[in-house]
Write a structure and sequence with these properties.
With 189 residues, the chain is mainly α. It has a single domain, classed as Endonuclease III, domain 1. The protein has helices spanning 14-22, 31-44, 49-54, 56-62, 68-72, 76-83, 92-112, 115-120, 143-154, 162-171, 183-187, and strands spanning 128-129, 175-176. A two-stranded parallel sheet has the order 1-2. It is globular.
Length: 189
């Protein structure tokens, strides 16, 4: 069996490897999946992606499978329930931000027809391929993530700084930061 050459950041963690090999950087235009990535990236703020990824299934269960319409209707009772759920990240500001972000997402869908149309407009509809040769060259922000962050904030989003937006853009395939030596680089162009 031949060993695949991949980016270094997944390390030896099986779940991180699976995420890298099957999802990270793959261009996504599905609104529910894009909202899921936004939610997970906002909960990641200040934490490692590994922590969030290992809690993903718990988030999926606790957050109604990342359905923005349902999340937008969460009330104080639901917030209290989420704060008591040890399977997720129990940060009150992030949980309240989740609900604001769901409302803002629904507004974007009404205005642009889809969340995908809105998000992909920041990269002119095409994946930005950075053709990276070294992991140390992977960025944490860009002109596009700065613009997305600024616009999301205007629309009422929280926990959406440029670094969070850049991580989202990488995960959702708006930016291809797979190393050129990685077997996924070509697949995610």
């Amino acid at each position: 069996m031949t060993q695949k050459t991949r980016c270094l950041w997944p390390g030896t963690d099986e779940l991180m490897i699976e995420y890298h090999d099957e999802e990270w950087g793959k261009p996504c235009r599905d609104d529910q999946k894009l909202f899921e990535f936004i939610v997970l990236d906002t909960f990641q703020a200040g934490l490692s992606w590994r922590i969030v990824l290992h809690k993903r299934e718990n988030f999926r269960r606790a957050l109604d499978n990342f359905q923005a319409r349902r999340i937008a209707r969460y009330d104080e009772r639901k917030i209290k329930s989420l704060l008591g759920d040890a399977g997720i990240i129990r940060n009150q500001a992030k949980i309240r931000g989740l609900i604001k972000n769901a409302h803002a997402t629904l507004n974007i869908q009404r205005e642009f027809g889809s969340l995908a149309a809105y998000l992909w407009s920041f990269v002119k509809g095409r994946t930005i391929d950075h053709h990276l040769k070294q992991q140390s060259k992977i960025g944490t922000r860009s002109r596009e993530s700065d613009a997305l962050s600024q616009d999301l904030k205007k629309r009422g989003f929280t926990f959406c700084g440029s670094t969070v937006c850049y991580a989202f853009m990488q995960g959702a395939g708006l930016i291809n930061d797979h190393l050129v030596s990685c077997f996924r680089h070509r697949e995610c162009k």
